[in-house]
Amino acid sequence: MVAQGYSLTGGGRPLAIARWLLAVAVMVFAMVVIGGITRLTESGLSITEWKPVTGALPPLTDAQWQAEFAGYQKIGEFQQVSGPAGMTLADYKFIYFWEWAHRLLGRLIGLAFALPLLVFWLRGMIPAGYKPRLLALLALGGLQGAFGWLMVRSGLNTEMTDVSHFWLSIHLLTALFTLAGLVWTALDLRALPRRIDSARVTPFGLLVALMLFVQLLLGAWVAGLNAGLASDTWPLMQGRLVPEADWTHGVLWTFTRDPYWLHFLHRWWAFAVLAVLVVLGRRLRPLDRRASVVIHSVVGTQILLGIATVMTGVDLWIAVAHQAVGALLVASTAWGIHAIGQRR
């Protein structure tokens, strides 16, 4: 079967574009990792304004640093947490750095996607049928930046000491969906010279994706509510399998806001995801053994890191590794679902 939009005499430069997309995917992965450090160091609210252009430069003078610090001192996180803990300007510079680095990398990703896309487009290097998909990925990147600011803005008041965990989940899941989209599109492009049609999402692939999505959503809520600190024991919580949760506000509130219940769901839904990914890996063996090995390795590592994160009381670097491997799990799962959905 000849792949749609590709011919031996002129179907664009699919391999070059695939390599570019994978390079951008690596940058998005780095963005997720730095985002995890930003969250775990409580750095996300350190920059209280959104300046898409001028914000690329950090404060360069003492007066500029004092002005930024003064803006941070007006919000609840400083007034209720950082200030009473005795935060100094040097302490503030540390958290500012991580938020600034996170935003700067976001700007660089935007440039690394938009400028080559323009060049590929003008030179006619994009295979037929792929322009809408690449524009959609560009739009996702723009949405990611907007969602990031809406997340930060949710915590810029005198009542909140953290950002909304709902906005945090939207921000993180958009990044991970973009990562999966980059990997999927790159794999489709790499298949074009071999005359293989674009992959489709099979019913089983959709099941895997939905189960992983639920786990990622739970993980984002656990992170946003600091619910990882709800227990430092495993497998029991509070000396029991099922922890005490607050049901007085209704079922919906408990399933979306109670830190103990969300922690419980996140630690045990992980094993349902593990089971379905093992099945995916086994189905992949005759199709793509490398993808099978990667999925098994990554999901096993992720389970161990999740347990270690709990038992160390959310140690910074173990928790960062947990988020990093979570991003790798998304990429490898996209690879696996793509492989079983490829029409050979």
What does this 3D model show about the protein?
It is a single chain. With 344 residues, the chain is mainly alpha-helical. It has 2 domains: 1-198; 200-344. The chain contains 11 helices and no strands. Helix 1 runs antiparallel to helix 6, helix 6 (165-191) packs across helix 11 and helix 7 (203-224) packs antiparallel against helix 11. The chain is flat and about 65 Å long. The protein starts with 13 loop residues before the first helix and ends with a helix.
How many beta-strand runs?
0
Could you estimate the helical fraction of the residues in percent? 55-70%
Low-pLDDT stretches are: 1-10
Task: List the helices and strands in order.
Answer: HHHHHHHHHHH
Oligomer: single chain
The average pLDDT is: 94
- Main pleated sheet: none
Write a brief caption for the model.
The protein is mainly alpha-helical.
Keywords:
single chain; 344 residues; mainly alpha; 2 domains; 11 helices; flat
